[in-house]
Structure prediction request, 157 residues.
Amino acid sequence: MEQMRPSRAPKELRDIILEFSTERKCSRYAITIRWPGGKYTCARCLGRDVWKLKSRDLVECRTCGKQTTITAGTSLHQSHVSLQQWIFSAYLMTHHQALSQADFKRIVGISSDMTLWRMKSIVRTVMAAPNEVVFTARYASREAAFRDVLRKLLSPN
Ligand SMILES: [Zn+2]
Prediction:
């Protein structure tokens, strides 16, 4: 029955929503970008076992207890906005560039114009392009542009 009622939603949007459906999934994605091979490596003891702590952004070495912020040294360091909101913002900026400011805030779940302005400014800075249209045009697909924005946002500067 499912196949007889094709959804009008783009498949890739459903995929993105599922892939980043929880803050935990977003953190795991960030870890795969942040540490080579997606394996956290402790800067103190080179241990590769990690506890994900309650705090959205903090991982702790199971061996020596050293705590590391996933976003330390990245453009998202000390951001009060969730990783999921950053990721969805990057998605919208590479896929839905004509979106109004009001719709953008509603979809991402941000109430402040200033917060959104700052977020877009940070994303445009890592894009190193005058705007997201120019940036996205450099890639073979919007998906590729989106993934590269995430890589730039989540990698240490
Ligand atoms: Zn350690």
Observations:
- Residues 42, 44-45, 47, 61, 63-64, 66 surround zinc ion (CB under 6 Å).
